[in-house]
Amino acid sequence: MFKQNELKERLRKGFSEKQATLLAEVLYDITDELVKAKDFNELKEIVKDLAKAQKELAEAQKRTEKRVEELAEAQKRTEERVEELAEAQKRTEERVEELAEAQKRTEERIEELAEAQKRTEKRVEELAEAQKRTEEELQKLIVEHKETRKQLGGLSITVGYRLEDDAFKALPKLLKQDFGLEIIGKLKRTYVTDKDGKPIEVNIIGEAVKDGERFTIIGEGKAQLSKNDINKFIKKKLKKLEGVFERIFPLIVTYMISEPNVDEYARKKGIKVYYSYEF
């Protein structure tokens, strides 16, 4: 049998001082008596198992500590990521705030545009009313213009008749003086039938004789004579009366011409022009 000190010495061969002391105390307390020599080997095996288990625990502890270290690193990275997310969240909130401000400004602008649209619609309505009044005034002017044209037409007819009436009195003398044409009867204003059998108005018409030959005087009265008037006289009167009368003596009476060389143009067309101041 071994005493506690002897047991401790034995245990020191396989364990550290501290471990041997602790094991000796435990074993001695458990048995409360000297350990038998034959039981020591069993105890030694138990202690070896305990040591092996302790070593495994130490390895496990080491692995645990390593894992804890890894977890600590992961935690650190997580915290850094959380910090980054926090910064990103902060920037997002700032951006949201900016967008909110922009939205507010947009809404204010929309409100301004709505007001402007309202003013525009009011202006358009005013313009529509003004247009309506303008159209009403224009319609009145059209009616007045028609009346004016009617009056001017009547005045033009009156002036034309006055010119022709004066010509009826003066032409017999002028034609006798200038061309030796002797008027038979009186000159007049009337309708005659053209070569197509249609009636046309002739401003001045009468019969004349020269050297035993008879002529039909066909005349037109124009207050203001133009080359276009001469062309119309030829087309609408003289051409339509060709063949109706054997010999036609064409003439035009006027107050004045509306463009240069009109009387020369008429002369080349074989038409005599008399001015009112010659009457």
Q: Which strand order do you get reading across the main beta sheet?
A: 1-2-3-4-5
Which residues sit in consecutive blocks of at least 5 with pLDDT less than 50? 150-155
Major β-sheet, in short?
5 strands, mixed
Mean pLDDT equals 84
Counting helices, strands and paired strands, the structural category is alpha/beta
Helical content (DSSP H or I, runs of 4+): 55-70%
- The count of helical stretches stands at 5
- Radius of gyration, taken over Cα atoms and rounded to an integer in Å: 69 Å
* Secondary-structure element series: HHHEEEHEHE
Percentage of residues in strands? 15-25%
What would you say about this model in short?
This protein has 279 residues and is of the alpha/beta class.
Topology (SSEs and partners):
Layout: H1 4-12, H2 17-31, H3 37-179, E1 182-193, E2 199-210, E3 213-225, H4 227-238, E4 248-257, H5 262-268, E5 272-275
Parallel strand pairs: 3-4, 4-5
Antiparallel strand pairs: 1-2, 2-3
Helix pairs in contact: 1-2
Structure report:
Helices cover 67% and strands 18% of the residues. By secondary structure, it is of the alpha/beta class. Strands 1-2-3-4-5 form a five-stranded mixed β-sheet, with helices on both faces. The longest helix is centred in the middle third of the chain and has 143 residues, at 37-179. The radius of gyration is 69 Å and the shape is rod-shaped.
